Give the backbone structure.
Amino acid sequence: MSYARALRCRKCGQEYPLQPLNRCDFCLSPLEVSYDYKAMARGLSREELAAGPRSMWRYRDMLPVEGEEVDIGTGFTPLVKADNLGRELGLDRLYIKNDCLNPTYSFKDRAVSVAVSKAREFGFDTVACASTGNLAASVAAHAAKAKMRAYVFVPSDVEPGKLVGAAIYDPILVKVDGSYDDVNRLCTEVAKRYSWGFININLRPYYAEGSKTLGYEVAEQLGWRAPDCVVAPAASGLLFTRIWKGLDELAMLGLIEPVNTHMYIAQAAGSSPIVNAFNAGSMHVNPVTPDTIVKSIAIGNPADGHYALMVARQSGGGACAVDDEEAIAGVQLLAQTEGIFAEAAGGVVVGVLRKLAASGVIKRGELTVASITGAGPRTQEILADIVRPFAVQPTIESVEESIGALVRSA
Ligand SMILES: Cc1ncc(COP(=O)(O)O)c(C=O)c1O
Ligand SMILES: [Zn+2]
């Protein structure tokens, strides 16, 4: 049974029934799911949660889903103690939350499985989304599993591997001649005209809730405690706010001690409107025109930027950006220290972590979790330069001639 009881406006508090709605009629602010936390607290215990399935659905009672969930095996991804990377960065208690290991290779599966489950409950036969690439794959995969039709809209410069990653599930794939922000504007119009379950428009409050499970898992995997610091990437800013909400809810339910986690936003310098606002001491996010290879988080006008800023400020955290070169160096460092091949958004997180540790903002002894949200193999083109194999004939002489010096010096 779900304890969700209404949608509530984040600004004015007006309540609405649990329907496919995302904006308040009075003040146009975003709506979010509210719960009966008292009843939830009575119905939940650490032991029961720990005995649940090894997927995000172990937290089903903390999500707004009533009917059968659309589950492709998402969540309960590894929280890896990253000692090698920590040594490089000067951090003694560093962990990587490896969300590359979700079914469609990004954290988006968390959000989408809740949103598509709700779409089916609401009686939609079609789902749709505006995506920078990862969401498209996830929506298409969940629609395939739920036997629903999917329309996925992506910007024209999306990476080829991301297109294949969505197309394999056979959605109606629409490539829009414009940036992600153009795609998003277009989809807002499309959503008004067609009665589809638009994952990040009319279903956005439910989509948002799925990402909380990342925060729940981190706390449970740390032995039911919140970390001292979290570094997570932000595009629209939604994931960042929901990691915080997940931790905060666990404390509210008495499942962990009060949360004192410093939350740090990571963005690519070529698309860093939230970091800019943080550095300017403003709560207003001015849109930018993205120019970065880190396409999955290249959103110039972030819908939840203001709320992400609030979380960064109120938690005593911060916001930091790195350029494309630093992002690629981050991807390489993560792979070469921990064996985890992330996409460039992960490189941004590692680059930001490096800066925050070097400047003493994150301290050596603080228990820090870096959220690695998407896998690398679908965006290999950014790493073409690293492939420099030794070409040999299939003879031992040729091998020795080519790499003999290396073998001898090893
Ligand atoms: C790999 C990856 N990380 C992080 C994000 C950021 O998500 P949000 O829009 O919730 O800030 C995205 C968004 O597409 C993404 O693809
Ligand atoms: Zn309102």
